[in-house]
Each structure stands twice: as structure tokens, then as C-alpha cells.
């Protein structure tokens, strides 16, 4: 029972493959991944909205949102990396690469926005504070591995991560903003509709083409 409990806790912290490697070898080697889609979210006007809530209500609301995000990640096979305050970070295509990882990351992002939009509508009816959110996605190479000794964490590094964060900050409320690189992987292959934003200036990177994923069309309809 104790072993099963320990393994369950380990799987709550690390991807299954990494947890297994850690148990077998006592360590997990860092790995390079050529094509990973990084997703970042951020609640808009978080400080302003949170000031209207008690500490208990604030934590409960964030937790409710993140629990739903976790379920969406599991649905689409996306790996949650970490939360940073009110921001949520996840990655598609690791630790097990997949041809559909970029599309699944975008599907997850759209579903996250749907959840937040619906929740805001419901809370507005009750006169309660509600969050709105930006989401950004960029695809490219990353390095992934475990950091720390006691409170270790599976994390990712590289220019792709920074650019994904900038896709979020360059986005808009209620939208999923993706880079030109992610768009090139998806155009013509999946049932997405895109809204071109042209090239946007990104600090430290010059101009980058960006697109809003405007609609996820259902093939069955």
C-alpha cells in the first residue's frame, strides 16, 4: 500500500516514463526534443480581480481552473510542466513525441479558453469576480530534464519556451495566439480556421508571424 501510494505521488510530479527511469536508474537523463509545442496561459488583470476576493476564495478559484486544465491536458495527452502564480505551462510532444502533438496542444488551448469563457459567464450572472485569459503557443526544440534534489521538478529549457511565453503576452483575451512555426505545422492538415495577424514585433526576436486560431471546426458537423 505504501509503495503504491509513493508511486502515485511520483506520477503526480513526473511523467510516467521519467518516473520509471528514475526508479530504475536513480536518476533521469536530460533529453533533447526537436519538435515540442509549448503552451502558456495567463489571467488578465489578475492583481485587480484578486483584490476583490478573499485569500481562500482566490486560491479556490485558481485551483478550480487549474484542476480543469489538468483534466484537459490528460484528455489530449499534453504534459503539464508547472504553474507559476496564475500562469499555467504545458508541452505537447514530450516525453513521448507524437505527430499530432501540435494539433492536440492547440485543441487543448481552445478547450481551456472555452472553459474560462463559460465560467466567466456563469460567475458574472452571480455577480462574482471572474478571470479572463490569454493563451500562446510556439513550437520548436527544447531540452527537458529533472532539476532539484528534494523538491525535484521536470522542466524544459530553450528559446522555444521564451518565444511561447511571448506568444501569450502578445495575444488577446479569449483567444489562442500561435506562432508562424506552429501555424506551418497545422495549415491544411487539420480542421482549424486561422486569423492572420501579420508579423508582430517581439522583444529580442524581431518580427514573428502570428495567428489566432479562430475556430475549431467539427468534421462531423
Shape, per Cα inertia axes = globular
Secondary-structure element pattern, one letter each: HHEHHEEHEEHEHEE
Euclidean distance between termini CA atoms: 48 Å
Main sheet makeup: 8 strands, mixed
The proportion of strand residues reads 25-35%
Q: Count the E strands.
A: 8
Q: In DSSP terms, counting alpha (H) and pi (I) runs of 4 or more, how many helices?
A: 7
- As residue ranges, the low-confidence spans are none
Structural class: alpha+beta
Counting copies of identical and different chains, the oligomeric state is single chain
Radius of gyration: 18 Å
| Overall residue-averaged pLDDT value | 89
Give helix % range: 40-55%
In brief, what are we looking at here?
This protein is α+β, with helices and mostly antiparallel strands and 221 residues long. It contains seven helices and eight strands; from the N terminus they run ααβααββαββαβαββ.
Keywords:
32% strand; alpha+beta; single chain; 221 residues; 42% helix; 8 strands
Overview of this structure, please?
It is a single chain. The model has no long low-confidence stretch (mean pLDDT 89). Strands 1, 2, 3, 4, 5, 6, 7 and 8 form an eight-stranded mixed beta sheet that branches. Strand 4 (133-147) and strand 5 form a beta hairpin. The protein has helices spanning 2-13, 16-25, 46-50, 55-76, 101-125, 159-169, 180-186; strands at residues 31-43, 79-84, 87-92, 133-147, 153-157, 176-179, 192-202, 206-216. It is globular and about 50 Å long. The chain is α+β, with helices and mostly antiparallel strands and 221 residues long. It is 42% helix and 32% strand. The chain has seven helices and eight strands.
